[in-house]
Design brief:
Number of strands: 8
Largest sheet: 8 strands, mixed
Helix content: 10-25%
Shape: elongated
Number of helices: 2
Order of helices and strands: EHHEEEEEEE
Structural class: alpha/beta
Strand content: 25-35%
């Protein structure tokens, strides 16, 4: 049996690699020193945004505390759309995080709290996401409140959006724990 040369680790840098000038050239990518780019696919995913009746009533008529400022549909929809690429990325990176519901078989659906600081305070939007088909996801806004003291359930995930970045958190044993950030 012949001895193989020991594997060498390619240093990882988090910067994007330079574009390939020569399509036939073998260049460095994240995996190897010599690879040739064959194709680049721009896959379109459809995120259908739905508003639950509970949210609509709170938006139009308020609740026992009166009208709720800061939860207008434009702000809420904007936060949901900003959150989608972050949620998809986190669910790809972290084995313990899944925000898509599919074939629940009587189980409780995952709900995620989206948060963003606005002029009115901290906007909290609770969503439930379901897989419809290979390209389509149904995102339903269950409720929204613009308060700093929003109640989170134990084991529930929170995605805080800060401009183009995000922090994924989870409430665990009464304490909010940071899981990952992008």
């Amino acid at each position: 049996m012949s001895e193989r040369e020991q594997r060498k680790e390619i240093p990882s840098n988090n910067q994007r690699l330079l574009p390939v000038d020569n399509e036939l050239a073998y260049t460095r990518n994240r995996c190897t020193k010599k690879a040739r780019k064959i194709n680049s696919i721009n896959h379109h995913l459809v995120f259908e945004i739905w508003f639950d009746q509970h949210y609509q009533i709170r938006l139009q008529f308020g609740d026992e505390n009166g009208m709720r400022p800061g939860i207008d549909s434009i702000k809420v929809e904007s936060l949901v759309l900003k959150a989608m690429k972050h949620l998809v990325t986190y669910s790809s990176l972290l084995k313990t995080f899944n925000f898509i519901n599919h074939n629940l078989n009587g189980g409780r659906a995952n709900r995620i709290v989206l948060q963003e600081l606005t002029d009115d305070g901290k906007l909290n939007v609770v969503i439930e996401a379901h897989l419809i088909d290979l390209n389509t996801f149904e995102i339903t806004v269950k409720t929204a409140m613009c308060i700093d003291t929003f109640k989170i359930g134990d084991g529930q995930f929170i995605l805080e959006i800060i401009e183009n970045e995000s922090i994924l958190k989870m409430l665990e044993n009464g304490k909010i724990k940071e899981i990952y950030s992008l």
